[in-house]
Amino acid sequence: MKITRDDVIKVAELARLEFKEEELGKFTEQLGNILTYIGKLNELETKDVEPTSHVLDLATPLREDAVEEWLSAGEAVENAPQEEDGFFVVPQVIED
């Protein structure tokens, strides 16, 4: 699949990217090379290849979903760096 300069401009607009004029040519060539490589991969015979989501046979360890005792409000803030009247004190991030 041949990618054009207009294709790169459209993708850049969708991604909210701004490119300088000289960058458009560079990215058009690079994206064209990527699509050419993907085209070569499509030529491979994969009929007998089982689909996978990961190259290694990994499993996500799960624990049993069990109800446990909750911390009290006092216990929850006990180890907080700063606490005031039973609440966590955090740095102000929004200016007045």
Shape: flat
Separation of the first and last Cα atoms: 54 Å
Main beta sheet: 2 strands, antiparallel
Following the backbone from N to C, one meets helices and strands in this order, namely HHHEE
Low-confidence stretches: none
Rg result: 27 Å
| Strand arrangement in the largest pleated sheet | 1-2
Q: List the total number of helices.
A: 3
Average pLDDT confidence is 89
**Percent of residues in helices:** 25-40%
Q: Bin the strand percentage.
A: under 5%
Counting DSSP E segments of at least 2 residues, the number of strands comes to 2
How would you classify the helix and strand content by structural class? mainly alpha
Summarize the structure.
39% of the residues lie in helices and 4% in strands.
Summarize the structure in words.
The protein is mainly α. Helix content is 39%, strand content 4%. It has three helices and two strands; from the N terminus they run αααββ. Helix 1 packs across helix 2.
Features:
4% strand; mainly alpha; 2 strands; 96 residues; two-stranded antiparallel sheet
Please write out the topology.
Layout: H1 5-14, H2 21-42, H3 73-77, E1 83-84, E2 87-88
Helix pairs in contact: 1-2
